[in-house]
Inverse folding.
């Protein structure tokens, strides 16, 4: 249990709760859930520019990272089809993947197909079911994709000023504005309470909030004097109690609750809001193809990691269909902006390609 690990190393409850957020981030779990300690490890592994466990902002926003990968691929001769939805994987008579068919009927032929879509989309929607073992399909259907995350993007006309560290008179950013700010995290019991409410189908009454202000480090994201605030909040269940829909009323009610909490820490925040974009778990699934809204393409629990990700005997990136590979977050080692799954899958695919 994460709680036991933190108790061994730290005495301060606010510090323990702050560290605990990285153990439950994106996971329908509490600090008291068995195996939650691994998710913390997953978030602090690796390094950034030589600093172990460090994280950073991408200049220009996360989309800039995708564009950088696209430019590198194009420089090596890759052809990129943007805004072209894939209908299904094209199979030959020998049951090997031979490319993909787009929704407009265009066939894109290839000796190898690598999918960074979720296992659910790759194998349950894009691959002919008769070509897959029944036990494999059953396993993919059983993957736990519950998500607690509602992402809220906010535009504000001034920098938030927190009671614990008020802004200077000139309104210039202070060191804490450049960091991840954790709210409603004074104790791990608050995280557990927020989790418990969601397990009963109710959005947390006091949500866990991670607040970042990327425009402080990347001024080009907002007009001068204004800022963008990124709120990563939980817990919000994918399905609300009583079958209630995540309609506009439910979205706004939850966002208002989040903003009320921020207002307690930074009076004047609500008055500074110019606009907001609310993405509940169903929205994350619909817009980004994340099963259940899960940012990792499936829970990072111990029964869905290592040799069992996405299914036993298929953790090596190869799928039951020869020539079809899984290279996204649903493959080993799981989610996160690190590219490990893609790099590993590419090496496996290249090894197979040399023997074709």
């Amino acid at each position: 249990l994460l709680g036991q690990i933190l108790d061994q190393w730290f005495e301060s409850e606010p510090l323990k709760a702050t560290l605990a957020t990285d153990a439950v981030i994106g996971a329908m779990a509490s600090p008291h859930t068995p195996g939650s300690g691994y998710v913390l490890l997953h978030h602090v592994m690796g390094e950034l520019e030589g600093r172990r466990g460090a994280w950073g902002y991408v200049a220009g926003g996360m989309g800039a990272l995708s564009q950088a990968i696209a430019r590198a691929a194009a420089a090596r001769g890759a052809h990129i089809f943007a805004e072209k939805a894939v209908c299904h994987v094209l199979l030959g008579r020998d049951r090997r993947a031979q490319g993909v068919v787009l929704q407009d009927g265009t066939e894109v032929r290839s000796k190898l197909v690598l999918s960074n879509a979720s296992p659910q989309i790759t194998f349950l929607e894009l691959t002919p079911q008769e070509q897959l073992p029944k036990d494999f399909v059953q396993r993919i259907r059983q993957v736990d994709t519950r998500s607690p995350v509602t992402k809220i993007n906010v535009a504000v006309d001034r920098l938030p000023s927190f009671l614990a560290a008020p802004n200077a008179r000139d309104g210039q950013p202070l060191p804490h504005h450049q960091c991840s700010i954790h709210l409603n995290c004074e104790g791990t019991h608050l995280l557990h309470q927020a989790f418990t409410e969601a397990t009963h189908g109710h959005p947390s009454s006091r949500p866990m909030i991670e607040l970042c202000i990327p425009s402080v480090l990347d001024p080009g994201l907002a007009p001068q004097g204004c800022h963008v605030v990124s709120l990563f909040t939980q817990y919000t269940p994918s399905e609300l109690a009583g079958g209630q829909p995540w309609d506009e009323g439910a979205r706004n009610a939850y966002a208002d609750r989040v903003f009320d909490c921020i207002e307690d820490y930074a009076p004047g925040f609500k008055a500074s809001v110019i606009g907001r974009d609310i993405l509940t778990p169903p929205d994350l699934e619909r817009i980004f193809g994340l099963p259940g809204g899960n940012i990792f393409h499936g829970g990072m629990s111990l029964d869905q990691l290592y040799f069992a990700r996405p299914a036993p005997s298929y953790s090596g990136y190869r799928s039951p269909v020869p020539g079809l590979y899984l290279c996204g977050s649903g493959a080993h080692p799981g989610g996160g902006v690190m590219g490990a799954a893609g790099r590993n899958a590419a090496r496996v695919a290249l090894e197979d390609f040399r023997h074709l």
Q: What stands out?
A: Residues 60 and 209 are 23 Å apart (CA to CA). The chain has two domains: 2-56+148-288, 83-144+291-354. The mean pLDDT is 93. The longest strand covers residues 227-234.
